Amino acid sequence: MRCWFERVNPTGDAIELPEGKASVVFGRSPKATLVFDDALISGRHCEVSGDGVFWRAKDLGTEAGTRVNGRPIKYPRALFDGDLLEFGRAALRFRSEVKADDPVLRDAIARDPDAPEPWLVYVDWLLERGDPLGERMAAARSGGRLDHASWLGPLGERLFQGELEVDWHLGLARRATFRHVVGQLPYDWHDAVSTLLRTRVAQFLRELVIDVPRLRAGPRPLETEELVDAQRLIASLPTLPQTLERLSLGYRIGERPMRLACIEELAQRVPRLRGQDVFLTVRQAKLRVVSQVDGARLIGLGEGVRALTAVTRVRRGSHAQLHFESPPGIPFIADGNPCHFAPGDGTWKLFAGRLRGEVRVNNHATSVYQLLPGDLISIQGAGTLRFEVVP
After folding, report:
1. How far apart are alpha carbons 378 and 160 in whole angstroms?
2. Bond before 10 cis per omega within 30 degrees
3. Which of 149, 251, 304, 383 has its CA 20 to 30 A from that of 77?
4. Within a 10 A sphere around the Cβ of 290, how many other Cβ atoms?
């Protein structure tokens, strides 16, 4: 896409910007990409960088500053067609064949969710229009504290209760998990997922986990037809993020292997899901150490006392006591009533025992946890483990 600057002051030929990823430095120094003979301009005054489609302007720490549309920029700021870039007495009008608007930017993010430029340009585009979502994303970018529940509408209460868990990126939902919380009845997960995907904070969701085996009522084993129907329900939703690259409908413990691939109706709506397995029957679970405190020990898995290792396995049919010993000097209250990690009712559970409040799953504290792959188990005074399953 062609992008260029029209010279407003001083007048002259247009300044063509390179195709592809590049940066251009404006300044008075001969080492600058484009040299301006102006005493008010620093040697290296400002930089314009981009990926060939989207470009951003950045002041290089000058006293005089750099302005876009008359306003000083303190941080890198996206340039849109018609913006006026000013530094010293120079004034350049940015021109682009890309008419950046909401659909264009969202499509650019969907094509490559890992590329930072479209994300940053989208934030600036929203801020220019006074959109509260832009303010939220900018606050997240600067490390500010965010109110998540209000942006989830009626699902805010589910977030508080632990039925919905969300990992955030730039204030937007990157991974969402719907789970069954012990002591509460299953709910209509289809309506809940539909509500989530209609919110603006879920428009770029990349991973969706639905704990289907435990969200439906009754003890009867989950059948293949039910999982296919669940996929059809998802495929029928009016809104599905094109950034979605992983869908998990849960797992269960069973002897008979059961792997289910994404159905064609869903793959047509979200091509990134094509060929992926969305449901697994598992026979083994693992606890992978993410971090640990020096001297902490994990007791009860295998024979005798074992220190925390890189991967600790718990096989199907076992009912393992996880007695965590903390290093000397750090109090621990698990003696006589350790937490338990055990399969049951088609799932893996973690019973906190007397460690309630000291054992958390995804920063959520309760007595019994229904574990899902990827869950983080944090033990105060010992370390952090990640729960994984093996088909």
Report:
1. 19
2. yes
3. 149
4. 12
C-alpha 250/C-alpha 346 separation (Å) is: 11
Q: Which is it for the CA torsion 23, 2, 101, 12, positive or negative? A: positive
Distance between CA 369 and CA 180 in Å, rounded?
9
Q: What is the 8-class DSSP label of residue 78? A: E
| C-alpha dihedral sign at 180, 181, 187, 189 | negative
**Cα(137)–Cα(132) distance, integer angstroms:** 9
pLDDT tens for 85-139 read 999 999 999 999 887 777 888 898 999 999 888 998 999 999 988 899 999 999 9
**pTM of the full predicted structure?**
0.78
Read off φ and ψ for residue 325, nearest 5 degrees. -100, 130
Q: How far, in Å, CA of 321 to CA of 335, rounded?
A: 12
Count of helix runs (H) and strand runs (E) in the chain: 8, 29
Backbone angles phi, psi at 106, to 5 degrees: -65, -40
Q: Smallest Cα–Cα separation from 11: which of 94, 90, 87, 96? A: 90
Residues 6+ apart with CB under 8 A from 375: 361, 362, 369, 386, 387
List the Cα angle 209/212/216 in 5-degree steps: 150
DSSP states along 211-264: -HHHHSSSSSPPPHHHHHHHHHHHHT-S---TT--EEE--EEE-SS---EEPPH
Residue 230, CA distances (Å) to 26, 63, 227, 287, 386 in order: 56, 60, 5, 29, 27
Structure token pair of residue 110: 């969907």
Tens-digit pLDDT profile for residues 262-319 = 999 999 999 999 999 999 888 777 777 788 777 666 555 443 334 444 545 544 444 4
Assess contact for 290 and 262: CB atoms under 8 A: no
- Per the CB < 8 A criterion, the answer to whether 31 and 17 are in contact is no
Cross-strand bridge partners of residue 50: 22, 55
Distance in angstroms (rounded) separating the CA atoms of residues 165 and 159: 6
